[in-house]
Description:
The complex is a heterodimer.
Chain A: H1 2-19, E1 31-36, H2 42-55, E2 60-64, E3 70-71, E4 77-78, H3 81-90, E5 92-95, H4 109-117, E6 119-127, E7 140-146, E8 150-160, E9 163-171, H5 172-188, E10 193-198, H6 204-219, E11 225-230, H7 231-240, E12 247-250, H8 252-266, E13 273-278, E14 283-287, H9 304-316, H10 320-336, H11 350-364
Helix pairs in contact in A: 2-9, 2-11, 5-6, 7-8, 9-10, 10-11
Chain B: H1 3-32, H2 43-46, E1 48-53, H3 59-72, E2 77-81, H4 92-104, E3 106-109, H5 125-132, E4 137-143, E5 156-162, E6 166-176, E7 179-187, H6 188-204, E8 209-214, H7 222-234, E9 241-246, H8 247-256, E10 263-266, H9 268-282, E11 289-293, E12 298-302, H10 320-332, H11 336-351, H12 366-380
Helix pairs in contact in B: 6-7, 8-9, 10-11, 11-12
Amino acid sequence: xxxxxWRSMLTQVVGGAIRRPALxxxxxxxxTVTLIPGDGIGPEISTAVMKIFxxxxxxxxWEERNVMAIKGPGGRWMIPPDAKESMDRSKIGLKGPxxxxxxxxxxxxxxxxxxxxxxxxxxxxxxxxxxxxTPYTDVDLVTIRENTEGEYSGIExxxxxxxxxxxxxxxxxxxxxxxxxxxxxxxxxxxNSVTAIHKANIMRMSDGLFLRKCREVxxxxxxxxxxEMYLDTVCLNMVQDxxxxxxxxxxxxxxxxxxxxxAGLIGGLGVTPSGNIGAxxxxxFESVHGxxxxxxxxxxxxxxxxxxxxxxxxxxxxxxDCGNKIQTACFDTIKDKKVLTKDxxxxxxxxxxxxxxxxxxxxxx
Amino acid sequence: xxARSVRSLSGALKPLFSHRLLKVYGxxxxxxxxxxxxxxxxxxxxxxTVTLIPGDGIGPELAKHVRELFRFCCVPVDFEIVTVDSTMESxxxxxxxxxxxxxxxxxxxxxxxxxxxxxPSYKSRNNxxxxxxxxxxxxxxxxxxxGVRTRHRNIDIMIIRENTEGEYSSLExxxxxxxVECLKIITRPKSLRIADYxxxxxxxxxxRRVTAVHKANIMKLGDGLxxxxCKEVASGYPEITFDSMIVDNTTMQLVSRPxxxxxxxxxxxxxxxxxxxxxGLVGGPGLVPGANYGVDYALFETGTRNTGKSIANRNIANPxxxxxxxxxxxxxxxxxxxxxxxxxxxxxxxxxxRLHTADLGGKGSTSEVVQSIMNAVQSTGPYTLxx
Lengths: 365, 387
C-alpha cells in the first residue's frame, strides 16, 4: 500500500524528469537545443526547420554545432569538445544526416554520438501521412529499439580461415533499461500495449533474458498490456495488417529491420521521424535518411523527416501545443498536394514547401 | 552375324567403348537430365514411402487432408507417420523421426512447437531436423495469385535461405551473470554451397537476377564473408545479374516495391524475416509452401513454419500451403503428372471458384476447400476413387 504509493510517486517523478530534463533552461521560457545541421542536404533542411519554428514562435533557441570527428588525447576519436559541452548543457539535440566517409579512419559519426551520450533507445513513431499515399493506411505504431548492444556489438572473430563468428551480446542491464523506457513511453503517450519481439525459440538464452526482463518490468506497469511475439510472426502480420500493433520493443538487429520495415509502410525514410534517448536525460532527434549529395544545395530537399523529428522533440520537452500546431500545418500541406517537393510527388522547391507550412502555421494562430 | 551375337559382342566391348559413347551421347543425355539427381528408389511395387511428421497445432489435421487427397488421386505414395511429442524433454521422438527420414529420403512435416520458456538444453525440434539432415537450402517461391486480394500485385520472388548455420547455431553462454553471448557462425563452405544452389536454381528456372541480402556494413567479417562467397559464385554465372542489398533497406523496398526482386539469397535470420514478409505480401501463411533441400534428403512443409495453435482443430485452417508443399514433394519424387494435376486443382479452387478460408477473407472451412479441390481433380484428372 504505502510501498506502491511510494513507487507510483517515484515513477511520476522519473516520468516527469524524462519529460522535462533541465528545469533551469526553462527559467527564461526559452529552451536551448543543440542543432547539428549535418552534411549534404542537412544545412538546407535545418534552415527550413528553423524558419518553421520561428513562424510558430516556438520557445527554442538554437545552438549550431559541428560534430566532425577529431582525434582526442590518447589517440581516440571523439566529437569536438564544444559540441559535447553544448549537448551536456542543453540535453536536447536535433541532428541532420551525417556522412560516413568510407576510408576516413574514424568510425561512423552516428556511432560516435551514440557512444558519447549513451543513446540506448531509438524511438521511431510510424504514423500514416494522410496526403502521402502508400498501400498501407492507418498505420500508427512506435518501434523502440535497443541501440547499444545485441547483434551490433561489433565483436567478430575469424576462428580459422573461412569460419567467422559474430557475437550477439545481451545484458540484463541494457534489456531492463530499454524495457523500462518502452513502458514509460507507452504510459506518457497514452499507448495501450507494448509487444516484445524476440526469437527465443532459437536463441533461448539471449532473447530469453531479454524477454524475462521485459516481463519483470511489465509487472510494474499493470495498466499497459504486455504481449510477446516472434519476429517472424510480427513480420508476417505487419505486412498484412499493421493496425494490430502499438508499441514494439526489441533488441538491436530486429529493431533495425523492423523500424525500417515500418518506415517503408508509411512512405520511406524521407517522412519518418526518429529519436535517440540516452542516459542522464539526453535526447537527440534526427532524420534517418541519407545526405543525398546529388541534390545538396539545389533546394530540392524534403524537410519533412527532420521537421517531424523536431515535433517529436517538442513533445519530449512537453511543448505539445507547439508541436501539434507544426505537425498539423505540415500534414495539411501534404494533404493539400498543391505545394510538394519532388520526392512527395510534386515539383515545388524546398523553400516553397517551407513557406507554405509557415503560412499555414500563421493561419492557424 | 545374328542380333544376339552382335549384342554379346557389344556387351564384351562395352567397357572399351563406353567412354567414347559417353562422350558422343553424353552431351545429349546431359541436356535431357538436367541434374544428376535421382529420387529415392520406389520400392514396394513402384510406390514411394514418405515420412510424415504431423507436428502440432494445425499440423495433424492438414496431414490428414494430404493423405485423404493422395488416396483420392491414387498417388503411389505411402506415408510412414512419425509423431514427435514436443512436450517431452527427451530427444527420442525426434531421433526416431530423423532415422525415418534417413530411411525414406523424403519427408513432409507440420511445424513442431518449441516452448521457449524451457531451458536452453531443450533444443528446437525443427532446427534439430534441419541440422542433423544437413538440409542446407530453404526455398520459398512467393507468387501473387490472381484470386487473392493483396496490396501488391505481380510479385514473383524466390527466396533461398541458408538453413543450417548463421544465427541459428544455438551456441550461447553466460560467462558473467547477466551477460549472455550468442554466437552467429558464418563459414565459407556453407556460404559457397548456398550461393551455388541459388545460382544453379536461378539458371534452371530461367531467372535473371540474384540479390544477396546482408548486413555487411555492421557485421563486416561475418556477412562480409557471405557476400564475398556470393560474388565468387556469381562470377561463374555471367548470364545472371548479381547485386546485393542491406537487409533493412530490403524490407523497406519489399513493402513499397516488391516487384523489383527476382531471386534472393541470404543467411538464416534474414531469411526468416524476408520470407515472412514476402509470404505476408502474397496473401499470408496459408498460401506459400516451403521446401528444405539437402544433399541426400528433402523435407517439405509450409513456408512460414507456423503451428497455428489458435486455429487448431476448428476446421478453419487454410490447407493450400500444405497441399502445395505435397505437390513439391511429388515433383521431387519425379511424379510430375500427379503434382501438376493436384496443383492445377488447388490453384483453380483459390483463383477461380474463390472458395477461401478465413485468413483470405472468405467463409469456407478446411474440409470444404479440400472437397472443392477433389472435385476439380475429378473433373480434369484421369483416374480417381469415387467421391
